[in-house]
UniProtKB/TrEMBL annotation:
Binding site for FAD: 164, 184
SUPFAM superfamilies, alphabetized: FAD-linked reductases, C-terminal domain, Nucleotide-binding domain
Protein name: Nucleotide-binding domain-containing protein
Keyword terms: FAD, Flavoprotein, Oxidoreductase
Amino acid sequence: MSSEAGKTQVVVLGAGVIGLTVAHVLSENPKYKVKVVARDLPEDLDSQGFASPWAGANWSPMGEYNERTYRWEKTTFDKFWDMISSGLAIASPSRVFYDERKDLNAMWYKDLVREFRVLGENELPAGFKRGVGFQTVSVCPVSYLPWITKVLASRGVEFARKKVASYGEAAALAGANGVLINATGLGARSLIGLEDKDVYPIRGQTIVVENPKLNEFLCTELGAGDSADATYIIPRPWSNAIGFTTILGGKYQRDNWDTSFSPEDARGILERCTALAPAVADKETRILKHNVGLRPARRGGPRVEAEWVDLPRKTEWLTHEEHASENDTKGTVLVVHAYGFGPAGYQMSWGAAEEVRSLVDAHLNPNQA
């Protein structure tokens, strides 16, 4: 059945940062019985099957202004900022460099971040003409994902490890008149019945290092082309909430499914990051880990929208124990899509989750919307 003691069954398909944040927001409503179903679960921090464990997980300027995504980012930035006192997030001074003239006082994110300012010439690395500074915020997936999972467990949210190949299989988990949150990331490309061929990977490679001097977020504008360099240095809290480590990046390779480590890419990252922060080359810099992951992007931008989809009548994909009667397999399922965030999953997560909640509430209770 799609409800238990008057509750509506909500199945969140996907346990990346988007799926977990949506589950967090929806589980605040006692009318929803939330279950997270995924092939890769939050404890799988070494899995390359989803991007969230590998992310830089800070707020950084990406792309051009968009009213909808700006709202998501503003909500998320403020949420992360409020987590600083708990140790889940840290604030860090930031400098972003540009190699061409821009109207820096008109940057779309100037009112989103804290303490925005235009950099003086003495604050620019060689080769850059302009730059801005501000305070940003970051979290660390190694501690952040377990934290949000613990909160969900305390609310009675269930987790199930299951590889779901089709909409029919997923819808059966939600049941007639249930809710399915499609937060499958790259999986949205091949989810049978709901395939979205606009979904594609962006390969990234980073290096995790330890050096107390690398305590400033630095980045350059993303290079052009489908295989671009994305140079950034991201300090973030360590998993024990004492001190921090730093991410050096990176690569931004569209439509590249290769998850293998590239020594050549690693050398390039170290060279480019050293040009921004000479302390990278210090003897005290200790390399902790090399990361390779696939960012789940989408042509046309993130998809956050709702639709009613007929629930299949046949349930041959269910086990004998899961098999429901014919009456249970009639009706429709509210499907709310939440995927395609590319490199911005963390920095849009809370705002996007709030919109998902609004869509669920509005479609289930149209007279109260």
